[in-house]
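Fold this sequence, please.
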Amino acid sequence: MNVEQATVLKNERLTPAHYRMTLACHPSYQEAVPGQFVMLHVSGRDAPLLPRPFSIHRFLGLPGGEAAVQVLYRVVGPGTRKMARTREGERVQMVGPLGRGFMLAGAGSRPMVVAGGMGVAPMVFLVEAMLEKGMDPKDCRVFLGARGREELLCRDELIDAGVMLQVTTDDGSDGEHCPVTHPFQTAARADPPERIYACGPEAMLRCVAQAARVLKTPCQVSIETLMACGIGACLGCAVKGKPQDSYLHVCSEGPVFDTELLGWS
């Protein structure tokens, strides 16, 4: 884990509400696993007191042995509004990489990846890491969903990766007009994958987990939740586990969990 004042290399606006920030980082981030996250804090008079968690969206190797990570974020409150105003060359406090990430499929594997809304943030890193391990892009099926066209993120990156991509929107403004779980379930029943990965709203994750349970397919999900510390000290990010009265902490035991460990009915 590194605690550093990271320099902002780029802070690009993708849509009216979505941004991607590129931050110089310690070279040890090359050992980061998809699904891990960083805690970011932008200083200033109007900045929130506590840092906020963001999935590592991508790791970038730069010329001269330098390194950078990207985070994908949506402007929803004072913290992210402050982030959106951050300029190239400014610094933000960054702690990471934190948490437990995905177990990567590699050469010869046939995974399915389901991403809903901002849940796509860690999945680009996941797909790129699996390709680096030798996975054939045509063996990876990705289901990308959003409420509408303006919230459909990272499609170009996934197309460039060469994976089999299916797009859905809730309002029908792009791709298939349905929840992202519909084509996923249809495809999974017709040709069961060897492993399932998902990140997005909890209702989506529960649906994916149920499908995986029926198919008896290993499934890992990345859970999005608010957290204050990111290191397991505040115990504020607990989710129900198994058995019924046990709890798991997203920051230290996750954010990626095998769905069989979660107390979801």
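The radius of gyration is 18 Å. The chain has six helices and 16 strands.
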